[in-house]
Request: fold
Amino acid sequence: MYKRKAFMFGYSSKRTFLAHQLGLNLTEFSIVVSDEESFARAKEKGYKNLYLLDVTDDEALESLEVNDNDYLICVMDDHHLNVFLTLSLHALFPKAEIVALSDSRHTSQKLKMAGASKIIDLYQVSANRIHNILHKPVTTKLIEELFNAEKEFSFREMVIPEGSKLDGVMAANFDFYPHNIILVGMIDNHLSKQFIFVTSGLENRFDSGDTLVCIGYMKDLDKFEKFMKN
Reply:
């Protein structure tokens, strides 16, 4: 089964943590930069899949061999360049999923018009965080504890492969407890492409090609992913 690749465009000092987290969770992860300083910084951190190219050159972008549904993550510090890059990528790879960072509502509108599939507004995220700290301090503290990077606790999407032990098993009949992970929800390809929370009350069956979203420690998620494949 084809694994979706992810290309992150930009690797400034502000994006090192983001790259680290993506590198941990994605097996096919590449960094694309347009300056030698960023390239050297990423190489020093141990990244192998690196590309140094002119992101304003369509021919250079086409050399990346992006497939349908791959992730294109635009995090250039220059937000004008980020919009231009989003526009170029959408024209070259219309079926890819483009995720872009924004620094303002005005930039978000431009990114949406340029073809971004998902836009992360940094100011809106910051505003929501401040609001939650002020009005939901207990919930905010709990979430911060759960997703502390030092604890290696995270969500993960996992596609059920063909021949898996889970193929054909009813969700209600499978016990995730021995695996030390929690099933949050799934995308049942036989019903719809929409995400279904486990609390919805629907009786779902696990089939190959379905996507599970689980939460747990990284080591336990790794073990469970291997369990599904064996």
